Request: fold
Amino acid sequence: MLAGSTYFTVAVSVERYIAVCWPLQSKSLLTLEMSRKISWGVWLLSILLQIPTLLEIILQGKRGLYYDYQCSFGISSKNNKTIIRITLALNEALFLLIIPTISIFILNVLILRGVKINTIFI
Reply:
């Protein structure tokens, strides 16, 4: 699942941000129990983001000499199929590309600012 690896990367960026910008509080914030909760949350989010993709496919079998299976959308209208495909593409672009990329970018900028501020005081 692509969403899992994408959001695990965001979780690592959040962990880096906490470790760099709040070094004294990071020991109490970044515990094994918190890591487990975040891991379960990322897996759950990944599964939830894949549900629309799973619902779009219907497996139809025809009985004959050999089983012949066809995968198709569950909506009969051609216009609805196009709308659903566009919606799913926008959903994947938003939740698997745009939001994680912007989150990682913002966290890295905050980390750089934190490092810059900390090196001024050294």
Observations:
- The first helix runs from residue 2 to 21.
- Residues 2-78+95-120 form one domain.
- The radius of gyration is 22 Å.
- The mean pLDDT is 80.
